[in-house]
User: Which sequence fits this backbone?
């Protein structure tokens, strides 16, 4: 089968092809370029593993040993190894769901081993009826499920640095993951407790040794916040807050308190360390923008991406993830010439609010150096900014909520690396360590 005398016409600079190539019956993938290992001319021989019985059943499945390199990367402080993060290997994954065992982690003082039979959730403060719940009691309440992104406010913050960090995409942007979460709508328990007239905030506290405490505005708590008990169909894992955590869709990870033990209804935020000294947005004029809860629209090419190697000129699929804490992704554009021109990518279903959206676009690489980028738009009209625009708006004091366009340099030999396409001559006021475990 051939396309005729003319190959597909690029829709943007440097070989980006029409996204409908993946969908049209008139054009097949194989018609564009064959990337098969070779033609079969003889009978296919049996492989060694076909000549003996396979492995027996197991009580809990594990990945293939050939995938043992697909791991979270851990970054913790040497003096406090229980305080740090582990990064999800987004560059090794596909689809939109992150396996539970590869979901990113953020711990301030280790993972507590909690006996669910002894754990309690207390709702108190400005309520007419303070309540205490055992986990078994919560499991009797009506539950809902939703696919949702969870992202640390410090994700991608190495982008504030003057020089582009050189590491795999997931080990720079992988403090974000997407799961199916199931649990009890928080509003059901708040209504049962009875809110007083001046109730305006919820102060959540975790049962870890750090005693994480954070404030959540009451409207968000009543709107779509869950008391999550399950992740990806199974009970929460200890590192994700077993036996109970808050799930606050679209908001920065710090408010999604793990190992949840108390919810105190208040007329004001508690002004805890992690909403004053941390998780504030220091502006160029020295003022601090506090309670910047929602995560901004963002996208990332994951394949190919930094540290990968193209096998030579020819056809490739460019693939990545887009998400927004404010709503649903409506469009992702991809550039293969450093932003000079753009092609619209195909969005794989499902496309859900506050959830990863997988995008793909076909690309015919000519073997010359180039820069790959992606740019997302959400249904509020927000568009992912260039790095120069973000720096101009936010200054160089920032540490959280970095969401600028990411650029991958492709060299003539096919090697990919992280690059900046915007000039950055402004010295940073404060050095930013992307692996600082004090987020």
Assistant:
């Amino acid at each position: 089968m051939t396309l005729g005398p003319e190959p597909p016409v690029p829709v943007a600079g440097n070989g980006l092809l029409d996204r409908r190539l993946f969908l049209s019956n008139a054009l097949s993938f194989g018609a564009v370029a064959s990337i098969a290992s070779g033609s079969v001319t003889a009978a296919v021989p049996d492989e060694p593993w076909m000549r003996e019985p396979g492995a027996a059943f197991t009580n809990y499945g594990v990945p293939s040993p050939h995938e043992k390199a697909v791991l979270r990367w851990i970054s913790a402080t040497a003096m406090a190894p229980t305080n740090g993060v582990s990064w999800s290997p987004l560059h090794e994954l596909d689809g939109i769901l992150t396996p539970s065992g590869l979901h990113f982690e953020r711990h301030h003082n280790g993972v507590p081993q909690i006996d669910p039979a002894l754990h309690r959730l207390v709702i108190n403060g400005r309520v007419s009826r303070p309540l205490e719940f055992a986990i078994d009691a919560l499991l009797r309440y009506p539950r809902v499920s939703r696919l949702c992104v969870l992202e640390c406010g410090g994700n991608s913050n190495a982008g504030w640095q003057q020089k582009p960090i050189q590491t795999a995409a997931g080990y720079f942007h992988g403090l974000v993951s997407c799961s199916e979460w199931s649990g009890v709508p928080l509003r059901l328990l708040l209504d049962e407790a009875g809110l007083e007239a001046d109730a305006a905030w919820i102060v959540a506290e975790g049962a870890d040794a750090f005693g994480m405490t954070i404030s959540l505005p009451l409207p968000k708590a009543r709107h779509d916040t869950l008391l999550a008990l399950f992740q990806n169909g199974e009970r929460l894992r200890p590192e994700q807050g077993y036996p109970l955590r808050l799930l606050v869709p679209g908001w920065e990870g710090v408010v999604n308190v793990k190992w949840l033990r108390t919810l105190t209804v208040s007329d004001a935020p508690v002004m805890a360390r992690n909403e004053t000294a941390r998780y504030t947005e220091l502006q160029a004029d020295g003022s601090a923008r506090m309670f910047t809860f929602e995560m901004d629209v963002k996208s990332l090419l994951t394949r190919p991406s930094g540290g990968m190697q193209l096998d030579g000129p020819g056809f490739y699929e460019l693939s990545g993830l887009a998400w927004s804490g404010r709503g649903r992704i409506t469009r992702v554009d991809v550039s293969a010439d450093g932003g000079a021109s753009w092609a619209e990518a195909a969005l794989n279903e499902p496309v859900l609010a506050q959830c990863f959206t997988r995008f793909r676009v076909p690309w015919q690489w000519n073997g010359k150096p180039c820069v790959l980028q992606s740019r997302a738009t959400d249904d509020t009209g927000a568009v992912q900014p260039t790095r120069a625009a973000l720096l101009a708006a936010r200054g160089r004091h920032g540490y959280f909520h970095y969401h600028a366009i990411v650029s991958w340099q492709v060299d003539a030999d096919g090697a990919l690396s992280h690059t900046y396409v915007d000039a950055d001559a402004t010295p940073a006021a404060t050095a930013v360590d992307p692996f600082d475990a004090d987020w």
Remarks:
- The two ends are 55 Å apart (CA to CA).
